[in-house]
Every structure is written in C-alpha cells, then in structure tokens.
Amino acid sequence: MYSILIADDEKYVRQDIIRSVNWTDHGYFIVGEASNGAQALEKIKELQPDVLITDIRMPLTDGLSLIERALKLQPNLHSVIVSGYEDFHYAREAIRLNVLDYLTKPIDETSILSMLKKLTTALEGDNHNRTSAPAFSMPNKEGSFSAGSTAAAGGNLHYAVISLYFASCFLQKTRKYTENLFASWLSHAVHSHSDFIDDPCFGTQFCYMNPTLMQITVYAGHLTKDHLQHLLKYLQEQLSLCGFPAPAAALTPPFPDKARLSTLQTSCLQLLNSRLLFESDLIWYRLIPPQKEAFVSEITELMEQFRKNISIRHFENTEYYLNQMLKSDNKEAFTPELLEYVICEISNTLRKICLCYQLTINQNIFKEPLTPFYLMAFSELEALRKDLLKRCKAVFSFVNAADSIDVITLIKQYIQKNYEQDITLVSIASEFFFNPSYLSHMFKQQTGGNLSSYIEEIRIKEALKLFRTQKLSIGKVARMVGYNDPNYFSKIFRKRTGFSPAAYTKQDGGNDNVQ
Fold first, then answer.
1. Pairing between β-strand 51-55 and β-strand 28-34 as defined by DSSP bridges
2. pLDDT value at position 355?
3. Which of 140-149, 194-203, 364-373 has the lowest mean pLDDT?
4. Alpha-carbon distance 2 to 121, whole Å?
5. Which residues contact 453 (CB under 8 A, 6 or more apart)?
C-alpha cells in the first residue's frame, strides 16, 4: 500500500479528492491532510508519504515551492498538482520538478483513476531520485553504460537541449524502457559519427514528461550544430524503421554556460508548444523579436470582448471574437507567449463555467480537458481555432439549457462555500454568466425571497455558530462571515436575530432563530 498526503487550502476540495474513489482498492491510503504549504511540509517530515497531491496556489507556501522544498526532504516523493485553472507557465515549472500529473478542477473519478495508473507505474519502477534525470555517457568497450561524468572535461563542457513531441504517442512503454531505448540509439549514433568517438565526456540526460513528450540534454567537450543534426537524423531514422513518423523537435545550438540550462529547457518546451507558428517541425532556439504593441492591444481588446460577451450570454458574439483572435492572418504576428496567453485565458474561462455548473468530462462537455501542452497537438492555427470553437459551442449549448438545470441550488451551494468573501448579486451573476436583473428575478421566482437576503441569512447563521462555539470579538466574527464593517454587521445581526451581537454573547447563545 502506498501513502498519499493531500494539501489544499479548501476543505471541500480535499474531501472531494478523498471521496472520489476507494483508494484501498487501488493499493493506496490517505495518510494525512494539510490546509497550507507550511503545514504540508511538517506532515511530510512526520509521515513521509509516497505521494503528495497539492493545490498549485495555497497560503504560506504555494504548491510548486512546496514540491521543491519537499523533494529536498524526501527525494523519492512523487507529486501531483491540482489547479482550478490552466496555467502554462506553472506547468513548465512543474515539468522541471518532475511533477507526475496535473489535475484540473472539478476533479472526477476518471481523472483520479488516470492519475493512479501513472502513480502505480512510477512507484513500481526503480524509484530513482526524481530531482534529476538518469544520465548515460559514452558506452565503454563492452558496450555497457556508465554514469555520465564531467570530471574528465575539467568542467569545460558544451550543452544542448532537444525537446521531442510524438504525435502518435510513441512513448507508451515504461519510462525506464523508453530511456534505455533512446540511450541505445544515441550510442549507435555516436559510433557512426567520427567526431564523437574520441570525446570521453559525451553524455545525455533524459526527461520523460508524458506519453508524447521527451526532453534530452546532450553534453560533450566538443559539440556543434552539425553533431546535433546528426543525432536527430539518426533518431528519426530509427523511429521510421519502427513505423513511427518523425517527432516535432525544438533544440538549442550548443552553449557552454551550464547556468542557462534550466532556462533553455523551458524555452525549448515553449517553442515546441507553439510549433504551429513555425514553418517547420524542426525549430532551432533563437531570440524571438518583441511582440508589436499594436497587435498586443488588439488581442487584449478582443479577449476582453470575448469574456464580456460570455458574461452576458451573447454567445454568437463570443464566437466572433474567438474567430478574430485566431484567424490565419494572425499567424505571423503571434509570439509563443501571446498565443499561450490567448489559450490560457480561453481555457480558464471555459473551466470557470464548468466549475460553476459542476460539469465534468463524464458529461461529454469536453472530449478531454485542455492540458498544459494542449497547443502542441496542432500544426496549423486554423485547426486550433476550429477545435476551440467546437469546445466553446459545447459549453455554450449546455449553459443555454441552464433553465433545465437546478441553477438555484448551485448558486446556494456557491454562497454557502463563499459567504466569507465579498459576494454580491452582481458578482454571483458574473460567476454564473447571468444578467444581474434576470438572476434576481429568477431567484425570487423560485425561492420566494431575494438573493441578497439569502446571503445575509447564511452569514448570520455562520456568525451564530461562531459566537456559540468560540470566544471571538465581534469585529473578528464580522470579518469571518464577510462583513468588513462591524457596525454594519451588528445592524444586520440585530435585524435577523432581534439581538445585538453583544447582547447575544452575554446570554450564552439564547435564541438562534434567524429571520
């Protein structure tokens, strides 16, 4: 049995994860929970779990910082990130930390089971130190591999990074099998290139990211662009012999500064993720010219209109603005960063709708969720536009049918979970993509009361619980239930209970009736 620690600042999210599957049926058990990063670190020291499932944003220590610090305490710890939105920049940092999976809320049984398969494969492997990829050096005379070393070169090594994307999921074997296979191929490539044979410092490091993505770091005392082209050509030939198409590749020219390695690994992933902007599937790293301000302003305005029209349910207009952002004529103007921004914003908007209406993959709203490297699957901007348009239409169709959904129950649940926040009729209408006047009318029609009154009712009920169970000041209770002004809180409290907060606490709870 493998142990799992869950870290998330929202209790209901932790409970949803715990209740999603019968963990023991799959060989796991929940060893503990933490509500923030600092608490999680203490529990990792105490409980030494095999797996950490953590939210990406938490108070005190965020999820990625938590993982980085946890790996120093426990190098073999496997980690999974949970997030309520897509963030490509966070995702790339997660890759660097060897995060095993990236789950997006709402979390359902399907995504948990998929994660468990990956965890089981990783945990049943050789459990090597996950903070660095396995290294292979030049084969010795017997043909076996020894650990790569920089000592012989006196530190004067040159490095290069090669990122490979396999559209047909070539990397479907185990991580160890795939790494050994590539090491063997690179060994043959080295022997077939005379310049490499006399370099005792040649070596490679592999980072197996997912079934379609691998990154290889190459190092040698003498390394040229021609060497890299030879290695890549040989890999492509071997894949072709196995019946697989050549992978898309992003790679750097050789560079001597090891301090740049992490930055260039990230840059290669970004180039590969936005490969549709380039004319070839062989992308050499280079400095991308700054984005033209006029085009940035144009895209930003279109994105603002996209979100605005969703918020008022003008979905036809929303589709128009999506088409304008991703029209083929814009291909030359986009930089990878700006394209990622567009996809991230669209993805987060759709994810927000799914969260509000508690939609899951099982409800066929999406064939699959937008993943951090979703862009990588597309070689043309037009194909990307069509796919996103199809996804938008599926979500909009569901929201248009919202009258048949118990939206009022969802809104009540939202208020019950967020009463301590600054929620109002306007903010809730925006959250659920309704016009405020229409939402107010619908709420009153179905419940007989107004929405603002319901928010007050929930807040005062929670205040009563706090006064009854804890010794807290009136000001602190007011803030804990969503009122920044204690005087206004007192006024609402008296209106709802017939008592002032001070009088209520003096008579030990007295009458709990909330009007």
1. unpaired
2. 67
3. 140-149
4. 12
5. none
pTM recorded for the entire structure: 0.55
When pLDDT is averaged across residues 130-143 and rounded to a whole number, the result is 34
Cis link prior to 106 (omega < 30° from 0)?
Answer: yes
Who contacts 13 (Cβ-Cβ below 8 Å, separation ≥6)? 55, 82, 105, 107
Residue/partner pairs of 136-142 with CB below 8 Å, 24 or more apart: 136/183, 136/186, 136/187, 136/203, 136/204, 136/205, 136/206, 137/201, 137/202, 137/203, 138/187, 138/190, 138/196, 138/199, 138/200, 138/201, 138/202, 138/203, 139/187, 139/190
465 class by beta-carbon count within 10 Å (0-12 exposed, 13-18 middle, 19+ buried):
middle
Cα separation, 264 vs 275, in Å, equals 16
> Count of CB atoms within 10 A of residue 500's CB?
14
Nearest to 251 by CA among 286, 199, 287: 286
**475 touches 440 (CB < 8 A):** no
* Beta bridge partner(s), residue 53: 6, 80
As a three-state string, the secondary structure of 201-234 is CCEEEEEEEECCEEEEEEEECCCCHHHHHHHHHH
| Per-residue pLDDT tens over the stretch 291-319 | 788 999 999 999 999 988 887 778 889 99
Q: What is the pLDDT of residues 83-106, one digit of tens each?
A: 765 555 566 566 667 788 777 776
pLDDT tens string 160-191: 999 988 876 555 445 566 666 776 776 676 66
Residue whose C-alpha is closest to residue 415's, from 462, 351, 359: 462
What does residue 82 show for φ and ψ, rounded to 5 degrees? -115, 135
Encode pLDDT of 432-445 as tens digits: 777 788 788 888 88
Side chain identity at residue 55, one-letter code: D
With contact defined as beta carbons under 8 Å apart, do 133 and 206 qualify?
Answer: yes
Task: Report the C-alpha gap between 43 and 389 in whole angstroms.
Answer: 44
440 token code pair: 């107010």
End-to-end CA distance of the chain: 51
CB atoms within 10 A of CB 44: 22
